[in-house]
Specification:
about 120 residues
Amino acid sequence: MKQWDQFDLAGTLRKRLGKPTRVANDADLQGAAVVAGKGLELVITLGTGVGTALFYDGRLLPISSLPTIPSARVRRTTNSSGPARKEVVTPWNKRVRRAVETLRALSFFDHCYIGGGIPSI
C-alpha cells in the first residue's frame, strides 16, 4: 500500500507510547528467541503467510527475508480456514517439506526452526 511506503512506524509508536520502540517481522523476532548462535540458522514462520529469517552466529542477516517463491503453495494452504486445511493435510505437509528442502539448497543452513501461529491440523 502506497500510504505505508516510507512510513516511520517505530518513530510514530515511540512518540505515541513514550517508550523506546523497535519494529521487526515475526520471523526475526521468533529467531531472536530461539537461535543457538552457532553457524547459519534459518527461521520459518507459518501463519497467515510464510516468513523467513537468517541468522549467522546469532546475528540477524540484513537480507534475511528469503524469496517466498518455493513456499507459494504452502502460503496458499496456510491462508485456508481450519476445515479446508484438514482436507489437504498430506499435500500441505509435502509442500512444507519441499519448501524447506528448497530453502536448504538456497542457504545451506546449519539449523532450521519452524514455528508460527498456524493452527494445528
